[in-house]
Amino acid sequence: MKQVDGLSIGEVAERVGIRASAIRFYERAGLLEAPPRNNGQRRYDAAVVAKIRLIQTAQQAGFTVGEIRALFYEFPVDMPPSARWQQMATHKLAEIDVMLARITSMKTLLERALRCECPSLDDCAAGLDTPESQ
Amino acid sequence: MKQVDGLSIGEVAERVGIRASAIRFYERAGLLEAPPRNNGQRRYDAAVVAKIRLIQTAQQAGFTVGEIRALFYEFPVDMPPSARWQQMATHKLAEIDVMLARITSMKTLLERALRCECPSLDDCAAGLDTPESQ
DNA sequence: TTAATACTTAAACCGCAGTTTAAGTCAAGG
DNA sequence: CCTTGACTTAAACTGCGGTTTAAGTATTAA
Asked: Chain A residues with CB inside 8 Å of B92's CB?
């Protein structure tokens, strides 16, 4: 019987749906604090599950691991979380808009390619670059 | 006086606005054929400029180097360019739409984060995941 | 002759977010 | 005692699109 309290890294991993290797990586990357150990093995408090879910949410919003570390640990201690999110989110939104513009122009280009009738790849590309054809 | 005919790799690079190393990389990657050499140095026909522009257009449309190689060299020889573009473009458009959806959901998440008032990061993330607000 | 300039190669490196591998430790169960 | 299974580490590997580096060659101008 295992009756050491706290969750093993495998149990945490299963609860949040990631691999144990990812959790070790987050620790190395400074996103998670090193937990106490039992026989050399990490023992986690249940709260770590919420923290990892928070990491996942931030990732869904497009933040990199470095940015998430900044969000968690590199703001002035007296800065409220809402202000932290807002400052990061404002920067990230600008990046997102750039990506959106890029994706949109790819899409336009591809839609034009779909209507292409050119006899050679070269002609075709020339036409695509300069949208003369409606 | 240099009167060997053909362009040097540096001249080609300058005309298309990329580094010589990129041209060598395209050759290695099978996008450009190895040109004849003079004193061991590559000598390009002016047509390579159009070919690299074509590569650039394909890149703008979101194709990877592997996909561009396929577009150029891995279709049945009797398949017209328009059909090649169209087949590739159809696949790529589906990928683009997936990206677009991802970017859009990032944006939504971030916009919600901007309006967040939560007192703790954990609460905030919980609220963001489940859009109860507004 | 010498120095500057442009080229040549193979191999290592970049960022990103982890994953995989090798080699080992530990506790429980049969 | 031995196997099984989950854990430990550091280091190397993944894919992508090139860039950088080290070491060497060739041409040109002064």
From this structure: 106, 110
